Amino acid sequence: MILLRALVVTSMVTLAVALQVALFPYLAYDGVVPNLALLVVVAAALVRGPEFAAGLGFLSGLAIDLAPPADHVAGRWALALVVVGYLAGRVRHDARTSALAAIVTVAASSFVGTSVFALSGLVLRDPAVPVAEALQVIPSAVVYDIALTPFVLPLMMRLLQRLEPRRQVAY
Hints:
Blueprint: H1 2-23, H2 36-48, H3 50-66, H4 76-90, H5 92-95, H6 99-124, H7 131-136, H8 138-163
Helix pairs in contact: 1-3, 2-3, 2-4, 2-6, 2-8, 3-4, 4-6, 6-8
């Protein structure tokens, strides 16, 4: 069962990153594509909690960092999605019960993730993506991620819930 869970989660991340870097650039708005990997990490955070989501965030972010045509210092998206996974996992009890709470969680996660990515570029003096340009795309990124939330988040959450092992109650 653990192998099946790992295979499904790996497939989710791989598909999200592949769509994000191969297909969605054709649907870019002002140079911004939706961050499907972020939505997978948020779904994992809401279902499995902060520890699992932070680990998945690291792997998802690293996949984005290394997938061509990456033009920034590797590790920036990994850092951003670790922070997103941990923070989104901390609010999981509220967001699991309410669609509005889940949307607010995605909006906050998108804002935080894009901001951490932009600010890490400032700290690392990454010339590939100017910080001013990166900060200007934050509102577009948040809106794009929120727009995809109803289509992606429920599906990912339902899939992750089915993979969640049944907890036995000790008497």
